[in-house]
C-alpha cells in the first residue's frame, strides 16, 4: 500500500502505521522518528531540528523535503509505504505530489484519523517517557504507569515528561496542527484520495483501512 496517515498529535498514527506494516510489509516512514533519531545522534539535522521540536513547532519544510526525497527513493519503499506525520503543511503536500509524479508513484489514499479533542488531550497529557536514551519506553500515568517511584519498569531510569509533552508544548502542537496540518484534509479531499475514519480503536481502524484497500 502507498498511503498517507493524517491526524492530530495523539490520534494514534504511529500505532496504526505499525499495525499496517504487519499486514503487507509496507514500511512505516515517520518524520518524527527520523528527527528524534537525528537529535539522539547529535548530527547536523538533529542540531537544526531540536529547538523547533522542543517547542512543539514544525521543522522547516525545506529540511523535511530533503529527508523525504531521499527516503522515498530507498529500496524498501518499492513494496509500499505508510507516511506517518508527513506531510504536515500544504507546501509539503504539494512538494510530495510533485515528487511522487516525478518518481511515477501513485498514492492509494490519504486516511484521516478523526479522534475527539478531549480524547486527544487526555492521551497527550498523561504520556510519560523513560529518560534513558537507549530505552525511551512509553508510559501512561493512567493506563500504563511506571513504578511507584516513577522509574522505568524495563531499565530503572527515571520516567519523565518529554520537553514536547509539557502542557505548553502540547497546546502549541495542537494549535500548529489546526493552523497548518488540518487544511490537508480538504487538500486530499480535492485530490479524490481522502478516507475519513472515526478512530477510537487502532485495531478496528486498521481493519477499516484494509477493507478500503481491498475494495
Ligand atoms: P511527531 O512524532 O510526528 O509528532 O513529530 C514530532 C515533532 O517532529 C513535531 O512536533 C515537529 O516538531 C517535528 N516534525 C515531525 N514531522 C514533521 C513534518 N512533516 N514537518 C515538520 N515538522 C515535523
Order the strands across the largest sheet as they lie in space. 2-3-1-4-8
Indicate the percent of residues in helices.
40-55%
Task: Please describe the biggest sheet, giving its number of strands, its sense, and whether it closes into a barrel.
Answer: 5 strands, parallel
- Ligand roster: adenosine monophosphate
Distance between the first and last residues' Cα: 13 Å
Percentage of residues in DSSP E strands = 15-25%
CATH class of the domain at 2-26 and 79-116 and 179-214: Alpha Beta
How many individual helices? 9
Task: List low-confidence stretches.
Answer: none
The CATH homologous superfamily of the domain at 2-26 and 79-116 and 179-214 is termed P-loop containing nucleotide triphosphate hydrolases
CATH-scheme architecture of the domain at 2-26 and 79-116 and 179-214: 3-Layer(aba) Sandwich
Structural class: alpha/beta
Protein model, in words:
The chain has a domain at 2-26 and 79-116 and 179-214: Rossmann fold, CATH 3.40.50. Helix content is 48%, strand content 15%. The protein has 9 helices and 8 strands. The chain has helices at 13-24, 31-41, 44-55, 61-71, 90-103, 117-125, 167-181, 184-190, 202-214, and strands at 2-6, 27-30, 81-84, 109-114, 127-130, 138-140, 159-160, 194-198. It has a 5-stranded parallel beta sheet with strand order 2-3-1-4-8, sandwiched between helices. Strand 5 and strand 6 form a beta hairpin. It is globular, with a radius of gyration of 17 Å. The protein binds adenosine monophosphate. The site of adenosine monophosphate (AMP) has 17 residues, from helix 2 and helix 3.
Amino acid at each position: 500500500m502507498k498511503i498517507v496517515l493524517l491526524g492530530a498529535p495523539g490520534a494514534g498514527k504511529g500505532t496504526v502505521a505499525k499495525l499496517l506494516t504487519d499486514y503487507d510489509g509496507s514500511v512505516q516512514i515517520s518524520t518524527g522518528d527520523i528527527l528524534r533519531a537525528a537529535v539522539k545522534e547529535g548530527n547536523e539535522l538533529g542540531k537544526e531540528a531540536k529547538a523547533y521540536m522542543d517547542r512543539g513547532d514544525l521543522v522547516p519544510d525545506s529540511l523535511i523535503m530533503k529527508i523525504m526525497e531521499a527516503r522515498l527513493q530507498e529500496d524498501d519503499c518499492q513494496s509500499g509505504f505508510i507516511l506517518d506525520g508527513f506531510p504536515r503543511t500544504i507546501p509539503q503536500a504539494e512538494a510530495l505530489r510533485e515528487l511522487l509524479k516525478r518518481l511515477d508513484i501513485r498514492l492509494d489514499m490519504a486516511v484521516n484519523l478523526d479522534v475527539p479533542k478531549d480524547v486527544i488531550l487526555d492521551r497527550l497529557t498523561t504520556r510519560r517517557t523513560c529518560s534513558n536514551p537507549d530505552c525511551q519506553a512509553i508510559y501512561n500515568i493512567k493506563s500504563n504507569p511506571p513504578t511507584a517511584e516513577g522509574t522505568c519498569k524495563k531499565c530503572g531510569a527515571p520516567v519523565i515528561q518529554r520537553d514536547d509533552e509539557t502542557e505548553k508544548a502540547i497546546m502549541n502542537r495542537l494549535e500548529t496542527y489546526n493552523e497548518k496540518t488540518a487544511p490537508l484534509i480538504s487538500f486530499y479531499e480535492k485530490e479524490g484520495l481522502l478516507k475519513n475514519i472515526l478512530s477510537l480503536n487502532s485495531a478496528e481502524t486498521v481493519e477499516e483501512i484494509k477493507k478500503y484497500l481491498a475494495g
